[in-house]
């Protein structure tokens, strides 16, 4: 078995060492132009040249959960595209989103400002029942996040393409259910994959349907959000703020308004990082399972885009 590693922006050596330890007997190398044909590849943002030179690949293992960038490329015919499913990401996403929601709900941002200015002032406790949270996407990450928020006794709603059942979460499914889901939510957490159906979904119309004083947490992809519409809704007061981990352009240009907006908390696409050891163990397990002819989880359906 021959496996090529082709991950732009990722230091290859520790991945190669880990993959070799997990799959003894496999021939594992970093891709260089003209490399001999392989049957499997571990990829992140590979160049088109790599994919064109490797028409014999049976499976591409993406070292992330989102495959939107990979699916825009011309892929080897018949190659499976396999995403990371969880591999240590869902707990990170749950802690990031709970932190963002609770920081806003408990007004810790306001207390930080007060303390910095030497002001010992209390704010009136907010009622959890008035802060329903809607989670867009009830997949591997969205389900974990919705359950974590429900543990804090927020009313939680979830939205998916097909009907789902998640304990403690009111589930909505399909396009027709979106307006009702949004109207039931005050805080909106985006955990959708980026597909033609979800690009630009967070715009003036959808965000405008949130309950007044709404709050956005975008941890999925920057292209879900129409940034000018968020700014307009913050200006109008319909939205109280946003926590933004992903942008259309990363890093954003120096004059991007999100950098210094007082109602926006910005982080550098860090809400759920790929963990090398967990990812290698998962990918190696799937390669072994495929070798035995067994089914594996996390196969992407290119026709639906996730
Ligand atoms: P997933 O398991 O594929 O789940 C996707 C969810 O979205 C599913 O519930 C799916 O519905 C729903 N969905 C897809 N298209 C829809 C549509 N048109 N209408 C309604 N619902 C739709 O994905 P995941 O692992 O939870 O990850 C979600 C996204 O998070 C990734 O695609 C990636 O972009 C992003 N991400 C970000 C970071 C970061 O650090 N910021 C890290 C990892 C991942 P069904 O249940 O009906 O299929």
Number of domains: 2
The neighbouring-strand order within the major sheet is 8-7-6-9-10-11-12
The CATH class label of the largest domain is Alpha Beta
Any idea what the CATH superfamily of the largest domain is called? NAD(P)-binding Rossmann-like Domain
Structural class: alpha/beta
Quote the CATH topology of the largest domain.
Rossmann fold
How large is the radius of gyration? 21 Å
**Main beta sheet strand tally, sense and closure:** 7 strands, parallel
Describe the structure.
This protein is an alpha/beta fold and 306 residues long. It has 2 domains: 2-87 and 274-291, Rossmann fold; 89-266, Rossmann fold. It has helices spanning 12-22, 48-53, 68-71, 89-105, 108-116, 140-151, 178-183, 204-208, 227-236, 276-291, and strands at 2-7, 27-30, 40-44, 59-62, 80-82, 133-136, 156-160, 170-173, 187-190, 214-218, 239-244, 264-266. The strands form 2 sheets. The chain has a 7-stranded parallel β-sheet with strand order 8-7-6-9-10-11-12. A 5-stranded parallel β-sheet has the order 2-1-3-4-5, with helices on one face. Helix 3 (68-71) links the parallel strand 4 (59-62) and strand 5. Helix 1 (12-22) packs across helix 10. The two termini are 27 Å apart. The structure holds NADP nicotinamide-adenine-dinucleotide phosphate. NADP nicotinamide-adenine-dinucleotide phosphate is lined by residues 65-66, 89, 137-142, 159-162, 164, 191-195, 197-198, 219-221, 245-246, 269, 271-272, 306.
């Amino acid at each position: 078995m021959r496996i090529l590693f082709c991950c732009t922006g990722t230091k290859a050596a520790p991945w190669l060492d880990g993959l070799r330890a997990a799959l003894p007997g496999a021939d594992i190398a970093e891709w260089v132009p003209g490399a001999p044909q392989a049957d499997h590849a571990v990829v992140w943002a590979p160049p088109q040249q790599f994919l064109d030179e490797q028409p014999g690949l049976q499976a591409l293992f993406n070292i992330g959960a989102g495959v939107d960038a990979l699916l825009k490329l011309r892929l080897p015919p018949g190659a499976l595209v396999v995403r990371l499913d969880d591999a240590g990401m869902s707990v990170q996403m749950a802690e990031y989103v709970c932190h963002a929601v609770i920081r806003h709900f408990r007004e810790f941002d306001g207390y930080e400002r007060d303390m910095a200015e030497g002001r010992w002032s209390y704010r009136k406790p907010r009622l959890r029942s008035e802060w329903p949270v809607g989670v867009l996407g009830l997949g591997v990450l969205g389900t974990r996040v919705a359950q974590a928020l429900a543990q804090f006794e927020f009313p939680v709603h979830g939205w998916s393409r097909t009907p789902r059942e998640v304990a403690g979460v009111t589930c909505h499914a399909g396009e027709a259910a979106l307006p009702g889901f949004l109207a039931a939510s005050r805080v909106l957490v985006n955990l959708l994959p980026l597909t033609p159906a979800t690009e630009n979904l967070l715009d003036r119309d959808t965000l405008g349907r949130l309950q007044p004083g709404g709050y956005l947490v975008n941890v999925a992809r920057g292209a879900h959000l129409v940034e000018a519409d968020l700014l307009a809704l913050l200006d109008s007061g319909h939205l109280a703020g946003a926590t933004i981990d992903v942008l259309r352009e990363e890093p954003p240009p120096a004059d991007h308004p999100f950098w210094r907006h007082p109602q926006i908390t910005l982080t550098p696409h860090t809400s759920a990082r790929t963990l090398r050891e967990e990812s290698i163990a998962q990918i190696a397990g799937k390669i072994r399972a495929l070798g035995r002819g067994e089914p594996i989880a996390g196969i992407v359906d290119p026709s639906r885009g996730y």
